Amino acid sequence: TAGITQAPTSQILAAGRSMTLRCTQDMRHNAMYWYRQDLGLGLRLIHYSNTAGTTGKGEVPDGYSVSRANTDDFPLTLASAVPSQTSVYFCASSASLGTGGGYTFGSGTRLTVV
Amino acid sequence: KNQVEQSPQSLIILEGKNCTLQCNYTVSPFSNLRWYKQDTGRGPVSLTIMTFSENTKSNGRYTATLDADTKQSSLHITASQLSDSASYICVVSEGVGSQGNLIFGKGTKLSVKP
I want to staple B10 with a disulfide (CB 3.0 to 4.6 A). Which of A43, B16, B72, B109 is the partner? Predict the structure, then answer.
């Protein structure tokens, strides 16, 4: 089934350690996004990419970095994790950056920083 | 500040009953409004997308309405089923922007009981 694959499904990470959340899509979508979802808050955009080789900052980018070496992969890296980064992280993609198309979301990565 | 407010925060109904979820927004300029269904432990899945010129859109037992003048939308679920238990998220697109500028509501958690 075409869609987005995220890995790992869940992770417990010690504070100060680094980690990369993986995201791969097989729909040849140009745009990809990383969101975090916290209890009582709506999804918030961390970083986005409108095409391979370009990235941009969303609403809550601090403490996170991304890269887009090719169309399919959009990894999210936490260089030095802090407890406030405990959250559920969703990767999403759309055919193009902007407002017209629908977004496809992955199943999420549940990260706990202790 | 652009906001999307959903009500109620949570709702419990009996299987077979109908229900209506509300979404009010202050997003401007407005491009489109989407309703997503998010099952527990899964990513959001699109139900409907409406532009400002559309008043209603259906997807099976789900019917979304939009009043762009009052900036209100509703999602009506007919003959509810146990599988409708999920969070329903209203998402408004803030016009054409560099990252699509999706503004997410906090969601309504619906529980359908037998």
Answer: B109
